[in-house]
């Protein structure tokens, strides 16, 4: 992982047009799907958008701060079970679901981050992985709430007249969340907080010598990232109307890390593009072979060799 530059690079014009065209296509997709009578594509792209949100959340710590978290599935699991448990007890209010997801995710991120950030390198990776696995096995042990079979959701999240149980409503809501998150990531990247965070990634000892409380900055970033990942779990639960322990498994954390690296670690747009590329490759290969996992591996290796800075990071001009 190469050290990021702290200057403010200009976004190439073609990259701006690429983003505009992608956004326009996403806005028009549900309309086209309705006329073509192919609702499957709305569900598929909603899933892509949800994982783009989760990958962008991970990038806040992995790409901006150099913290290799292998436990972000913990927060996705918390977000999913926030909806499921509220629904189980007859609460369909989306604001309650959202508050539950954010508060519990923030508390979990603060507690686990305070422990993990006392270490570096492999130890940090293993501690974040261990906390995610602890939550995974905790959920499995709760037989009253489905155990390893998961928990069906009878009521989606309703925010007044906005009901996320409706596929089109969920689609545009997720698209809006991703757009706001990307804008917020761009602002954070160039803000004082982002500069300090990236400085910690380059040389934390020097940043500490300059008087910055580096651990505090990193913990705040970790909590912020965990909260956003929790929101992605809430959206995923509304998509599947189901909460599964598998949402908190280490494989989900691994997939998110692949998406970030595939798109471009430390870039603003990269994780979203990486999530789309990874999941679209997976979906296409599933249609042709039962051994799609091997095909995904080959494609990732090829992209890694041909685009070492990721799909977005390897574009001319290295757009952020």
Mean pLDDT: 88
- The radius of gyration computed from the alpha-carbon positions, rounded to a whole number of angstroms, is 19 Å
Q: Which assembly state applies to the chains in this document?
A: single chain
Q: Report the sheet-strand fraction.
A: under 5%
Q: Low-confidence stretches at least 5 residues in length (pLDDT < 50)?
A: 1-6
Give a short synopsis of this structure.
The protein is built from eleven helices and four strands, in the order αααααβββαααβααα.
Q: Can you walk through the features of this model?
A:
Keywords: Cell membrane, Membrane, Transmembrane, Transmembrane helix. It is a multi-pass membrane protein. It comes from Pseudolabrys taiwanensis. It is found in: Cell membrane. The chain crosses the membrane at residues 12-33, 39-62, 74-91, 97-117, 124-142, 170-189, 216-236, 256-280, 292-311. The structure is a single chain. This protein has 320 residues and is mostly helical. It has a domain at 48-247. Helices cover 69% and strands 2% of the residues. The chain has helices at residues 13-36, 40-62, 73-88, 94-116, 122-141, 167-190, 192-209, 214-240, 250-263, 270-286, 292-306; strands spanning 151-152, 158-159, 162-163, 242-243. It has a two-stranded antiparallel sheet with strand order 1-4. Strands 2-3 form a two-stranded antiparallel ribbon. Strand 2 and strand 3 form a beta hairpin. Helix 7 packs antiparallel against helix 8 (214-240). The longest helix is centred in the last third of the chain and has 27 residues, at 214-240. The chain is globular and about 55 Å long. The two termini are 16 Å apart. 45% of the residues are buried.
